[in-house]
Amino acid sequence: MEPGAPPSVLERLLAVIREHAIEGLFCDPIYGGNRDAVGWRLVGFPGVHWGYTAEQMKEGFDGRSLPIRTLSDLRRGLAETPANTMFTQSDQT
Question: Which residues pair with 47 in a beta bridge?
């Protein structure tokens, strides 16, 4: 390919295939890729968590020691959480 020349159809196709493969490997499993969080295990990503402790945020902390959690895990945990009535308005009128 000459410098400044537009990419060929084959080059564009390969770029799209590469992009989709990367997205499928590292997306949350809820979206259909990354089955059993294999991509996350590959790079040591612990998945999604509500937050991290100060110790976990320090440089050099090994995120692989945390359990891998997906969006489905967070939703399941949220569904099991008791309702918070502190901020609901009362029915008094």
Answer: 69
